[in-house]
Amino acid sequence: MTAEILDGKFYSEKIKNSLMKSIDTLKTTYNVTPKLVVVIVGEDEASKIYVANKHKTCLNLNIDSDIVQLDANISKEELISEIEKLNNDPNVNGILIQLPLPQNLRKDEIEILSAIDPIKDVDGFSAINIGKLELGVENLVPCTPYGCVKMLEYAGIEIEGKHAVVIGRSNIVGRPMYNLLLARNATVTICHSKTKNLAEFTKQADILVVAIGKPNFVTKDMVKKGAVVIDVGINRVPGTRKINGDVDFESVKEVASHITPVPGGVGLITIAMLIHNTLKAICLQKNIDIPLLQDY
Ligand code: NDP
Prior knowledge:
Elements: E1 4-5, H1 8-30, E2 35-41, H2 45-60, E3 64-70, H3 76-88, E4 94-97, H4 109-113, H5 127-134, H6 143-154, E5 163-167, H7 174-183, E6 187-191, H8 198-202, E7 207-210, E8 228-231, E9 235-236, E10 243-244, H9 249-252, E11 258-259, H10 266-286
Parallel strand pairs: 1-11, 2-3, 2-4, 5-6, 5-7, 7-8, 8-11
Antiparallel strand pairs: 9-10
Bound molecules: NADPH dihydro-nicotinamide-adenine-dinucleotide phosphate (NDP).
């Protein structure tokens, strides 16, 4: 068996084409040009690449995008004050704080992210939006897990009644992924670094989502024949610009029914969903009801 590739480029282009129509409607009917502001604290090289990609995507879709670069030594209070300025700027529709924050701010991450106005929180990481998701309300949902479930839906892969196993329990991927799959009536198991006999769980998965940050960690022997495998991992190969996933693509594609590649998988969908969330934020801010993913 060779797995069908879930092509992130294909699905992200479809999503972006659909969003372009919504951007046009917002401009022509509501006189709104969407504006996203990405705040980057410090000089993390990988973060700069991600931010540049987000900026480029915004410009390609004719939406305004600003990057606010702040010093790594900024205090929590100063950073929150910068966020509040953006909260109060009526021209700013979406605010994103690029993670990871510098070491000195990490203990305050939840407080900092929760300072973003929940209806401008396009990453969906604020306590309010995470809490809503936990309660089954999908307002502004974290882009990566949201993109993963959208890709499954667009590919016609049924989630309801399936056993989904998520490896990783971070606030930005694993936990929201758990809630999104549960809301779609999967039976969900979540595994982490303290899970004993991990392969016993992964081998039961109809849908296996891997978000751990360990290159090529999941191998063929850990995957059930015919499983759908979503690889969220982005691991830089030291000294290069190359990236690897968390799944050993070459061996796992022999047993999976569907698999996402890295690069070219979940990462591209994530950026498309960021634009989706920026438009959704405008709809929430201005009480506008327009279809965003109308092609599906
Ligand atoms: P975190 O480091 O925050 O979380 C990693 C999770 O994996 C933790 O829950 C950890 O468990 C678990 N874990 C680590 N080692 C093991 C192991 N040996 N067995 C089982 N579980 C393990 O990472 P993120 O969630 O932020 O990111 C995960 C990966 O996804 C990274 O490669 C990241 O770059 C990528 N990513 C990709 C995105 C995209 O757009 N495609 C977006 C965001 C992230 P514990 O909780 O016990 O420590």
